[in-house]
Design goal:
14 helices; about 45% helix; elongated
């Protein structure tokens, strides 16, 4: 029930393109449209999580003398965040090391808040995680494989090659993405035996599954890493390769692994055999899983949402 208002906007490209000229006019139109919305709605504060659609809104808010607060989830600020930073009262970041990635003039406005996660990641009951899908929890190890809400074709293909052997050792819960289930039609028998669960995407039950899992295999988006950290779940990360992104997931994964929270597999060279070996090695080594869990919990403050909400409230009350 949150009102939605669309505005025109131009894409922020990092390369030369004639569309960049037209996008300047689209951004200008977006600023005017955002000003109209903010005036109509009586906007008290603008909160931006980045993305190219946020830039006109930030500029509109600043031009109307509305306090602007931005938050960057990644350790490497995106282009929209860097553009918005000079106009922001507060620049919220996940970790202290991110401060130096902003210009000196902006660094004094950087506040380390951490990344917000939903409350259920802090207090979800892992005991009912499998039962919510009609699976009996026999106490067998659980491996949660996730590629995010869209799924990850690479991870799906790696899992498909090893799933038969893997399910002799553990229960596999697999977030396939919207099209992933159709890619693995032969899994019906495993599902019937209660050793495999494949679903396109999760809802509120995802937090309980993450807390129940003995090992999570997934990508390395900032949200995923923070959810793993606050739940203390041992993880094997296969970040999105640099060829398909700006490389932020690779850097996220490397820093998290350096802190001791996860094992990282190179997305350019990972094989199904390597993924299987790492999963089974963790399942066989309780001490190693406990080390990863302890390091994970020390990586991330759990009260990021409260910290950000406090800043928003201060901004509103100061008007």
């Amino acid at each position: 029930n949150v009102p939605y208002c669309g505005i025109p906007v131009g894409k922020l490209r990092r390369y030369l393109d004639m569309e960049n000229v037209l996008d300047l006019f689209r951004v200008a139109a977006g600023i005017l449209a955002a000003r109209r919305v903010l005036r109509r709605e009586g906007g008290a504060v603008v909160f931006s999580k980045g993305g190219f659609v946020s830039v006109p809104v930030v500029l509109a808010g600043w031009s109307l003398k509305i306090p602007v607060i931005i938050h960057e989830s990644d350790d490497d600020p995106g282009l929209a965040t860097r553009i918005a930073a000079p106009f922001a009262r507060h620049i919220c970041v996940a970790r202290g090391e991110v401060r130096r990635r902003f210009r000196p003039a902006a660094q004094r406005r950087v506040i380390v808040t951490g990344n917000p996660v939903r409350q259920e990641f802090l207090n979800a009951d892992p005991a009912g995680a499998l039962a919510s899908f009609g699976l009996q929890d026999t106490g067998a190890p659980v491996v949660l494989v996730t590629g995010g809400s869209q799924g990850a074709m690479q991870i799906n293909e790696l899992l498909r090659a090893i799933l038969g052997e893997l399910t002799t050792r553990c229960v596999v819960v697999h977030q396939t993405g919207a099209h992933g289930a159709a890619e693995i039609p032969e899994l019906q028998a495993l599902a019937a035996a209660g050793r495999y669960l494949g679903v396109p995407t999760f809802g509120g039950e995802f937090a309980a599954l993450m807390r129940r899992a003995d090992v999570v295999v997934g990508r390395a988006g900032a949200g995923t890493i923070w959810e793993l950290a606050v739940t203390g779940t041992p993880a094997i990360l296969i970040p999105l390769p640099g060829s398909a992104s700006r490389g932020d997931q690779i850097r996220n994964a490397r820093r998290y692994a350096d802190a001791g929270g996860a094992i990282v597999l190179d997305p350019e060279t990972v094989s199904a055999a390597l993924m299987k070996r790492e999963i089974l090695s963790l399942l066989d080594n309780h001490h190693r899983r406990r080390e990863l869990a302890t390091a994970a919990r020390g990586y991330a403050p759990a009260d990021a949402a409260q910290r950000i909400a406090g800043l928003l409230r201060q901004a509103i009350e100061s008007k």
